[in-house]
Design brief:
The chain is an alpha+beta fold. It folds into 2 domains: 93 residues, Ribosome hibernation promotion factor-like (Double Stranded RNA Binding Domain); 74 residues, Sigma 54 modulation/S30EA ribosomal protein, C-terminal domain (SHC Adaptor Protein, 2-Layer Sandwich), CATH 3.30.505.50. Helices cover 26% and strands 40% of the residues. The protein has a 4-stranded mixed beta sheet with strand order 1-2-3-4. A 4-stranded mixed beta sheet has the order 7-8-9-10, with helices on one face. It has a two-stranded antiparallel ribbon with strand order 5-6. α1 runs parallel beside α2. The longest helix is centred in the middle third of the chain and has 25 residues. It is globular, with a radius of gyration of 20 Å.
């Protein structure tokens, strides 16, 4: 486990760094692969903030907490990440992966509506390239839940097509299957 601790708007403290590292180390029991952990400790006026981002097997677990005491913030955020890691491990036990294909890169863009006087249509205000990791639909739903996202783009390991799982307004999960026209 590779842990990096960053301090913002406060003096670096070996005691806080050691405390955060010790708390994060207890998460090893939930993880069987190399893991990168980034801890950001910051002070905002009267609030102390602890943010943790943990990446293992392409799964991102993240959380943040704000309290009056930095040690309490660390405890609370580590508890939050521990719940996510426990949930991830339980789902992995129940899930048997299929053979994985190659990863696909997908680009998405956010469009902004042009002002009324300009009739050029929407314009791109954000563009990001993401990696669509090969996985089953069940694994994609699990990762979307762990990341607390509303959607996830992935490559379906069975069909090798790009798919999107998304959370519907009624709380259920939707699946978009983009069929590619392949010539064989």
């Amino acid at each position: 486990m590779q842990i990096s601790v960053t301090f913002r708007n406060m003096e670096p403290s070996d005691a806080l760094k050691a405390y955060a590292t010790e708390k994060i180390e207890r998460l090893k029991k939930y993880l069987d692969t190399p893991t990168d952990v980034q801890v950001v400790l910051s002070k905002h006026k009267y609030r102390n903030s602890a943010e943790v981002k943990m990446v293992t097997r392409g799964i991102v677990m993240a959380g943040s907490e704000n309290t009056e005491d930095m040690y309490s913030s660390i405890d609370l955020v580590v508890d939050k990440i521990e719940r996510q890691a426990r949930k991830y491990k339980d789902k992995l036990r129940a899930y048997k992966p299929t053979s994985l294909g190659e990863e696909v890169r997908v680009r998405y863009e956010v469009l902004e509506q042009a002002p009324a006087e300009e009739d050029r249509g929407p314009r791109i205000i954000e563009s990001q390239e993401i990696s669509a990791k090969p996985m089953s639909v069940e694994e994609a739903v699990m990762q979307m839940d762990l990341m607390n996202n509303d959607f996830l783009v992935f490559t379906n390991a069975g069909t090798r097509d790009v798919n999107v799982v998304y959370r519907r307004k009624d709380g259920n999960i939707g699946l978009i299957e983009a069929k590619s026209s392949r010539e064989e």
